[in-house]
Specification:
- The structure is a single chain.
- The protein is of the alpha+beta class.
- The protein folds into two domains: about 250 residues, Metal-dependent hydrolases (TIM Barrel, Alpha-Beta Barrel); about 140 residues, no CATH class.
- It is about 30% helix and about 20% strand.
- The strands form five sheets. Strands 1, 4, 5, 6, 7, 8, 9, 12, 13 and 16 form a ten-stranded mixed β-sheet that branches. A two-stranded antiparallel sheet has the order 2-3.
- Helix 13 runs antiparallel to helix 14.
- The longest helix has 12 residues.
- The chain is globular, with a radius of gyration of 21 Å.
- It starts with a helix and ends with a helix.
Length: about 400
């Protein structure tokens, strides 16, 4: 592999530049590329062009990261879009689409320890070097999120050598999460390599309050991303970035809180809506309730429950209450419009026709404007969502929670 210097982004101080708001979702999967499946659990409608040119504008996303860019069919599509002028590589990293959306190339892999990790890469040649490294350590370069014969520490070092950004994916989930299924403390598991980790993805079943009960997380910038496996779920969680320009270097600055760049807010689902919020008994299909943590089923005595995110964090936490570091952005609970009671496909299409995007509607539109277009009930629900007052039927055992309809109706 060539030296790090040859791959390095040209860094500039960036002081004195005016900053702008950028909404971004940094964990989106591709179902089909080059006519073949690259993520078998993802919808075939999830294609690179549809994410960039259809769903990102519809949701109001200025920046999207596709985390299957390391598999060959997706790389080839990026190259084709560059040749056709649909994408242009930014001098400071990232790919600008002709509609203005910034594409970040990400590679989600499973480490030797069985942990899902994302390496965000700045340039096309960075992706090629990544592929050169993993091609002898992986079974199938045509598929995404393959298990790599490399440790977490190896992949951190790979990310650094390519001037990438390393991020543990859905960190607290019982399935492949770095805290959820591998270690109680990264500092113990990887030592000083923890200093190379700037970002941590919370996952759908955790929020900032939960993550900040673990002391070492104070050093990480939290990301709330969709982990979308369908077009409809693109942007179900997102982040508000403060950047001077849309490029990879500015993203790095945000995650490092450098020169005024930072994440201003995380917007994510209430953890109660997550599939793995509480422990679940696979024997009697019971979701844990009451005292935490629960590792043994109160109903049948099963000691092999699927550990819930909440139960896991309560078991390994350092503090009784969250301790947020100075500058930690707020976390706002959001529910995708399609998940709100009373908003069926026809009403959703009508609503979309009157607002620039879903994020514009949810974050910026007045309640009166929403009521005029969508009716009083929908306006009331969105207002309650903004203020965190929706009532939730908790999820678990691989099933998402739901918003209670009767609570919203008056």
């Amino acid at each position: 592999m060539e030296s790090k210097v040859s791959l390095k982004i040209f860094h500039t101080a960036g002081e004195g530049k005016s900053l702008r708001d950028v909404y971004g979702d940094l964990h989106i999967h591709i179902g089909i590329a080059g006519g073949q499946a690259v993520k078998v659990t993802a919808s075939p409608k999830l294609r690179l062009e549809s994410v960039i040119f259809e769903e990102a504008p519809r949701k109001g996303l200025d920046m999207v990261a596709v985390v299957d860019a390391g598999c060959i069919p997706v790389t080839l599509e990026i190259e084709e879009m560059l040749r056709e002028g649909k994408l242009q590589e930014h001098p400071q990293g990232g790919f600008i689409a002709r509609n203005g959306v910034l594409l970040i190339a990400g590679c989600e892999v499973e480490s030797r320890e069985g942990i899902h990790l994302i390496i965000y890469l700045p340039f096309l040649h960075s992706i090629k070097y990544y592929q050169k490294y993993i091609k002898t350590r992986i079974n199938n370069m045509m598929l995404s999120t393959q298990k790599v014969n490399a440790s977490v520490a190896d992949l951190i070092n790979l990310s650094c050598s390519l001037d990438g950004i390393f991020c543990p994916a859905h960190a607290f989930t019982p399935h492949k999460g770095i805290y959820g299924s591998w270690t109680e403390r990264l500092s113990r598991a990887i030592g000083r390599n923890i200093e190379q980790i700037k970002a941590l993805e919370l996952g759908l079943s955790a929020d900032t309050d939960m993550a900040d009960m673990i002391g070492e997380t104070k050093n990480f910038t939290f990301l709330s991303n969709s982990d979308a496996h369908s077009l409809a779920n693109v942007g179900r969680e997102y982040n508000l970035f403060r950047m001077a320009d849309k490029n990879f270097l500015e993203l790095r600055y945000c995650l490092e809180n450098k020169d005024g760049r930072r994440i201003m807010a995380n917007y994510g689902m209430d953890p109660l809506l997550g599939k793995y919020h509480r422990s679940f008994c696979t024997r009697c299909s019971t979701i844990a309730e009451g005292d935490i943590p629960v590792f043994t089923c109160n109903g049948c005595g099963n000691k092999n429950m699927v550990t819930g995110v909440y139960d896991r964090i309560m078991a390994i936490r350092d503090y009784e209450e969250p301790r947020h570091p100075i500058g930690r952005p707020p976390y706002y609970y959001r529910v995708p419009l399609k998940e709100l009671p009373g908003i069926g496909p026809k009403r959703l299409e009508k609503i979309r026709g009157y607002f620039p995007s879903e994020i514009n509607l949810v974050e910026k539109a007045s309640v009166d404007a929403i009521e005029r277009i969508a009716g009083k009930d929908v306006a009331r629900m969105i207002n309650r969502m903004r203020t965190g007052r929706l009532s939730i039927i908790p999820g678990g055992g691989g099933h998402y929670g739901k918003v209670q309809k009767d609570y919203c109706d008056e």
